[in-house]
Amino acid sequence: MQATYQNPVYDYRTSPDQHAEQPVHHPLVIIGAGPVGMAAALDCARQGLPVVVLDDNNTVSVGSRAVCYAKRTLEIMDRLGPGQRLVDKGITWNHGRVFAGEGEVYDFNLQPEDHHRRPGFINLQQYYFEQYMAEQIHDEPLIDLRWKNRVTDLSQTEQGVCLDINTPDGPYRLRCDYLLVADGANSGIRTLMGLESKGQVFQERFLIADVLMQGNFPTERWFWFNPPFHQGQSTLLHRQADDVWRIDFDLGWDADPEFEKQPEQVIPRVRALLGHDNFELEWVSVYTFQCRRMEQFIHDKVIFIGDAAHQVSPFGARGANSGVQDADNLIWKLKLVLDGKAPRRLLDSYQHERSLAADENILNSTRSTDFISPKNKVSRVFRDQTLALARDYPFARAFVNSGRLSLPSKLLDSQLNTADRDMFSDRQAPGVVATDGPVRIHTGEDSWLLNQLGNEFCAVFFAENVARIPVTTLQSLRQGAIPIRPLVILAQGARGSCNDLIIMQDKEGVLFERFDATPGSLYLFRPDQHVCARWRQWSVEDIRRAQAKACANLEECEHE
To answer: Starting at the edge strand that comes first in sequence, how are the strands of the sheet with 457-463 ordered?
Structure first.
């Protein structure tokens, strides 16, 4: 098969820890250098938290694997470092089309609203995603990424976690306060600990074919139900970088995976779709749908993230995207706990918030699978009639499910939120991730709101002009055990500057509208860019109580 990508081989290096007489202690160790583990490591660096990452391999993923990265993942990658590089290499798309039989049913736009920095999705092979993060990590002094380090056993004590590790130079041991497990769906650590991930294995198999070709298809997501070139089944087409096209063919449960992966079986399927032979196979695999998760993600000092904690079927692009959001949710909390600035129970909010997100993803993924591959006559009639109606009636399109695409979970019932006492629209309610919009900083630089948020608590004050900014009050938010970074957004057209405050103009006039802000409104954001409180009228005491609640410092908010 033709290969457009050569996997890098990362050097195994001996660590001084391997020669220590006693196990060396680290605050945090991450197992797994895939997309989720490396995202967690980069987030640690942004938080000033030193971390050791262990991986039993010495390269990135083989084959394209996860290819669709959602807007929220790209925004997180912007905060962590490699966002622009990923977008530059990836294939940007917002539009998709759904077909049934020989005709189009409808098309859709994932980002109908202007003035966002990032698109609804990019398509990029997972090996590039991992490579760019690994290269970013190489330049991060707080991250010690150790290739060819395989964890063979672990134990927990009141002091933390002890790891037995095997390397090409032999075994050694480490200790850590917390262990993050990001070693994938078939987690070896989960097995070592005698834990289970429970759920449903669907009686359905899909063939993945990465095809190298010069295609005339637009840069869109195309999904076919019962196409003429693959009758009775379904097919999905995506473009990736380097003129590689991902094609997914529904095979049915009775298909023999090893037989179907043979080139002489794959090539006729691809030829039937394309209508020509001007292509080469790059990578082929067969996968089985699975939707499952662990009941508890936290086991004392061992915390599971990504596919190690929860797994969904590929349709909807919910696997890697959800895992990156796990890391986004967890690391700032771990930093506060390790620093003694928040109680251990803050980590319970990771279990609560991300298990709800996992259940949401599993529900959507299960529904997608049932719609794509109905298992009984009634389900098939429902699907086919829905597709027929959707051609002419927009209401029916909401019921067509070729994979509900990944969106960030709304943490509306999180115990870290402070409930509204003023009237606001629901769009940016506490628990919702911040929307983006263009800003012009007082220095004259054009930027984006999300570029200014993250890694720490931020308070954003909306003002009609500079004269209405309570400068001293906002500056006082920097004081305290957990500082709050004050930011100001001025109405469109307003100008001005102020010492020690970042002042931004609502460049296109969209941020006041998106946040339903009036002059004097203030939003408090968590370090992961989620809204945790908002007010029309506020005091410093209000902000401090809301921050304490967002840090699970319940004693400080009992009088709220």
So the answer is: 446-448, 438-441, 502-506, 484-490, 457-463, 522-525, 531-535
Task: Give the number of other Cβ atoms within 10 Å of residue 20's Cβ.
Answer: 12
3-state DSSP of 298-322: EECCEEECHHHCEECCCCCCCHHHH
Instruction: Answer whether 553's CB lies under 8 Å from 481's CB.
Output: no
The number of C-alpha atoms within 13 Å of 266 and in the hemisphere containing its C-beta is: 25
Other residues' Cβ atoms within 10 Å of the Cβ of residue 186: 11
Tokens of residue 316, six digits? 């909807």
- State the pTM of this model: 0.95
Q: Which amino acid is at 482?
A: I
Q: Which alpha helices (DSSP H) does 57-148 contain, by range?
A: 71-80, 83-89, 126-138
Say if strands 51-55 and 143-147 run parallel, antiparallel, or are unpaired.
parallel
Give 282's Cβ-side CA count (13 Å radius). Answer: 22
Give 217's DSSP letter: S
Which regions in the chain score pLDDT beneath 50?
558-560
Sorted by where each starts, the structural domains of the chain and their CATH numbers stand as 16-91+119-196+295-349 (3.50.50.60), 438-557 (3.40.30.10)
Nearest to 509 by CA among 494, 529, 487, 531: 494
N- to C-terminal Cα distance for the chain?
A: 64
Q: Among residues of the chain, what percentage have pLDDT more than 90?
A: 81
Residues β-bridged to residue 157: 160
DSSP 443: T
Residue 18 phi, psi dihedral angles, 5° rounding:
-70, -15
Which of helix, strand or coil describes residue 444?
coil
Q: Per DSSP, which regions of 91-169 are E strands?
A: 91-93, 95-100, 103-109, 121-123, 143-147, 150-157, 160-167
